[in-house]
Amino acid sequence: MFLLAVVTLPFFLFSRWIALETVRLWMKNVRFSLRWILGIETEIRGRENVPKGALLYASKHQTMYDAFFPFLILDDPAVIIKQELLWYPIFGWYAWRTDMIPIKRGGGSKTFENMYAEARKRTDKGHQVLIFPEGTRKLPGAAPAYKTGVHGLYEGLGVPCMPVAHNAGLCWPRRGIRRRPGKIIVECLPVFPAGLEEEEFMARLEGEIEPACDRLLDEGLAIQGRTRADLKVNQT
After folding, report:
1. What range does the domain containing 199 cover?
2. What is the pTM of this model?
């Protein structure tokens, strides 16, 4: 990250595209390093389901890696991130320059209003806005807790929504520095059209993501030679 930032620093202030491509190149390096240093392969499925143009990308959230691999999937992502991340050297500079959407957590309705206003600016430009419907990282296999705020954003933006499932938490835990060899599988699921009512939207969103995550969880555990019982032991 530091090397790429230094090399492209003279250019990124003048070109958002260069900043975005730098992040994408860094992400490709992360993926390469995970595979050949730590034994963690990343497979992306369902690319045929990814449409062009403005989109709400609603993903399961298990680890920091979730916020990175969209740069390998989407043309022009805008990730909703914690405002504090903008204060980080290098990371914060590129988050600002690539038009990420910082929010102040715990701000209630005011936070949502600001998030919606900024997200609308991005989708008006054709960006794909990434949101985690549960709001916080969850352990693999944990009971879901979807927040209805995702429908408010979907309704206000008036764009299609693509649900995304994965099993990244099996290899990249939400806390700590340990990484477990295995296979991270990311699956882009069929897109919902704009305009669904809240009850139908929330039911479809959870009903698509959770079964897919369960399937990918079992597949990832089998690759690691573990079972769900082993997973529960490690999480307690």
Report:
1. 2-235
2. 0.90
